[in-house]
Design brief:
Helix 2 runs antiparallel to helix 6. By secondary structure, the protein is mainly α. The protein has a three-stranded mixed beta sheet. The N and C termini lie far apart (59 Å). The chain contains eight helices and three strands. The chain is globular and about 45 Å long. The chain has one domain: Up-down Bundle (Four Helix Bundle (Hemerythrin (Met), subunit A)).
């Protein structure tokens, strides 16, 4: 059974058109839809603020990794989730790892728009649908356990996973002397905690 007949997973898995600048607000506005849209729009803002050479620059201070590599990893998880909706099983180990997303900032931006549109078409009722999830969690065993989850819970995971990597990207941008969007790489609960703390006299 497909979780949502409204979205076209093949559009996400296939090539993106870098000429598409739009990134529409999801038609169904639940807090979870908004969280996905917000984190992907933060990625959009990041990509728009980076020069191509900074996106792919290897930084020795962070083990030679690149902003593009971390951003591709974030999108990989969103794309794996979308493909899993049609397959009735999300497999986070079977990621696309498209090197073009990692090395072509404009293509990464187009893929971000494409993923945003796909998630926006998932109806509210599908968030509670059960779905199986597979992910390798043991360094010694080759088998990856299969567990039960829901579509909504996996959306929460993808958002939290992206925020974690955004925090690493923020450090890399600091090294590159590139400003990041406000709150970039900071968990919503952390932002709320700091906002509630009394101001120093």
């Amino acid at each position: 059974m497909k979780r949502s007949p409204l979205h076209d997973v093949s559009a996400v898995a296939g090539g993106a058109d870098p000429g598409q600048p739009d990134s529409p607000r999801p038609a169904t506005t639940t807090p979870l839809h908004d969280a996905v849209a917000d984190v992907l729009r933060q990625g959009e803002s990041l990509l728009n603020s980076l020069a191509d050479e900074d996106y792919t620059r290897k930084l020795p201070a962070v083990f030679g990794s690149t902003v593009g590599g971390h951003y591709r990893h974030c999108l990989d998880h969103f794309q794996s989730l979308l493909r899993g909706l049609d397959a009735d099983e999300i497999n986070y180990d079977d990621r696309e790892r498209n090197p073009r997303i990692e090395n072509d900032r404009k293509f990464a931006l187009a893929e971000t728009h494409r993923v945003l549109r796909a998630f926006g078409s998932i109806s509210k009722q599908f968030l509670d649908c059960p779905i199986k999830v597979r992910s390798k969690v043991n360094y010694e065993l080759d088998t990856a356990p299969l567990i039960g989850s829901t579509v909504g819970r996996e959306l929460m995971y993808a958002v939290a996973h992206a925020i974690h990597h955004y925090a690493l990207i923020a450090v890399m941008c600091r090294i590159l002397d590139v400003a990041v969007p406000a709150g970039f790489g900071v968990a919503p609960s952390t932002l709320k905690y700091h906002a509630e703390q009394p101001k120093a006299a």
